[in-house]
């Protein structure tokens, strides 16, 4: 597409590495762009206005974001994707997933009002799978959509199942190492491996890197996208106020506003409606003891002063 009077062209950020990003122009061609100034770092999924200078570009504007998915550890903020429709958390029967990591990813999505979708892979593993599926019961009760996958065995069927959920949307895929994220991306994006090679070469001048977030189109019409992002581990949530945490946990949420103290932390107070629901048979929204422990641990973690 032609540049406007100021020489600006529209583009989409499709990969990021450090300060420079790869931008896809309206016609589909891609080029390296650098941010203008120190602030305003563009992230994958950003719609930008860029200007050509020599054979690279500078990003002059970032369009307002619908949402920004980020995790923040104690040291630095790592925002990594913007303008998402949903987050797909891919876990597996083996290696055993960490419920705390799963809970963190869901809370990060809830905080930005991005719809989460959980997929449990390796249903061919029999008993180990059923055990993992049972561990996810509280998350089904919370209303999160959940898929059973066997990506290595039943690729074609899984592909159909996934397409129904992904079509026309932009989905960030998150998952711990070994759950099958590469298998899933290769199933849905033919040629993904080759693309990754090209991107890392472009961004990193030939050095191989797997640490950048990458946008993949699933269809030639460029209407359905997957974003692959490393780093499910160390999912810091330091950008979230502890007092806001309970609202981001759908099993705690229905009990809020019913505690004796308006500023109840739901950790130890008498007359706490959340505590009353933990492992309770009475009432319609029970909270498992494990989920309350995750809440407690996170609340304490987020209450620590940030260490810089
Ligand atoms: N049994 C079983 N194994 C699977 C299935 N899907 C993937 N795997 C295997 O699980 C292992 C991890 O799969 P990957 O796709 O490499 O997982 P990943 O999440 O990308 O892992 P990293 O590369 O470590 O980030 C591989 O050995 C796959 O062959 C499945 O449905 N069943
Ligand atoms: Zn309370």
From TrEMBL:
Its EC number is 3.6.1.-. It comes from Ramlibacter tataouinensis (strain ATCC BAA-407 / DSM 14655 / LMG 21543 / TTB310). It comes from the Bacteria. One of its GO terms (biological process) is ribosomal small subunit biogenesis. Keywords: Cytoplasm, GTP-binding, Hydrolase, Metal-binding, Nucleotide-binding, Ribosome biogenesis, RNA-binding, rRNA-binding, Zinc. Pfam families: RsgA_GTPase. This is Small ribosomal subunit biogenesis GTPase RsgA. Belongs to the TRAFAC class YlqF/YawG GTPase family. RsgA subfamily. Signal peptide: none annotated.
